[in-house]
Amino acid sequence: MFADSAKIFIKSGKGGDGHVSFRREIYVPNGGPDGGDGGKGGNVIFVVDEGMNTLTNFRHKRKYIADNGDDGGKKKCHGKDGQDLIVKVPPGTIIFDDESGKVIADMSGKNTKEVILKGGRGGKGNQHYATATMQVPMFAQPGQKSKELWVRLELKVIADVGLVGFPNVGKSTFLSRVTNATPKIANYHFTTLNPNLGVVDLDGDRGFVIADIPGLIEGASEGVGLGHDFLKHIERTKIILHIVDAAAVEGRDPVEDIRIINSELEAYNPELMKRPQVIAANKIDALYDGDESVIEKIKAEYEPSGIKVFPISAVTGQGVKELLYYLGDLLDGMEKEIHIFEKEMDPNVNYDDPTEPYTVAKTEEGLFDISGPRIERMLGYTNLDTEKGFQFFQKFLKENGILEELENLGIMDGDTVKIYGHEFDYYK
User: Fold this and answer.
1) Does residue 173 register a pLDDT over 90?
2) For the chain, how big is the Rg over CA atoms in Å?
3) Which of the given ranges, 16-20, 40-44, 145-149, has the highest pLDDT on average?
4) For the whole model, what pTM was predicted?
5) 247: domain range?
6) Residue of 219, 341, 355, 408 with fewest CB within 10 Å of its CB?
7) Was 43 annotated as part of a binding site?
8) Are 123 and 39 part of one and the same domain?
9) Does 84 lie in the same domain as 135?
10) For the chain, what is the mean pLDDT?
């Protein structure tokens, strides 16, 4: 089964926690802190695999989770980093944030590898927190949390020329004649349920990629039939090639068919109407007695607006060579870069740092001791002798959950709180 969209859950690895330990050797009874740092969590990395052409694999597996980093150890042992998770996708895959619909990455062109979610940083061990006033730090830094996200993957075919037209106008036959593609061909509507790509080889290495976009019907831009699923593939193409049934085998009006398809393209994405268009009036081998009045009618309708019309027969090959060389000349005068969808969000921006460590403990003397690097810095620039400064410090303790921890330890009104040489009486 061809699959051009999928929704999956991705999660980076959590950073390992820093360790609290102290150097203890036979001749060093009171050694300093030697807690090691935690390892970094694994990243979630998307990589283009040129051998893939569908998103079918993502229908069988929906969750992709990278490894966590290991915690630090004693004797300054660093925790092992979590292994990165590699997610392989076909070229042309766009990664959207499922909630907002914004583009996270377009895996096309030169963008063949991108870190979508970064793993959490490992926390620092207590060896980093020894100071002149805190020589025995009983705390370490926790590892940074993992990041998780639901993303939507969409595969948009990358081709220079996109074939559009109603079912049974001969697009698959045309593609099989001019390229190495082998599409299924049969006489019923929606024969082609997935885009077929092929390479057209012209003289002098002037080849280009052509894609048979599945047959469109009126109302496709509103989701009728499989319209939305098909229309997305035309967004990558540089030239739109209309294939119409000039012989009106099914009684259709080729001029009206082109008008309908252009209306659907414009309704889906107005930018598509700015792309160069070419018309291939197919099945001229089936015209009654060589009557070319239909061809002249198509030319009179569209050539004045700059849309070139080529009478062809995909069955006999008549007129096909002239059409291909015209398409090649058009492409030679265009930019070589394919249309890349711009990044609209980065899940790794504003990724909060780990909370700096602190400890709240009840001492043997019945005091409540608070310590930690951020608390020590806060005391350094807060004037506790002023009412405003003291209120600011109280607010800091509350917002960081320190007052809640004191209550969990059973602090009562009138108990003493000790913070780096300062002592306070606690009152709720």
Assistant:
1) no
2) 33
3) 40-44
4) 0.62
5) 161-332
6) 408
7) no
8) yes
9) yes
10) 82
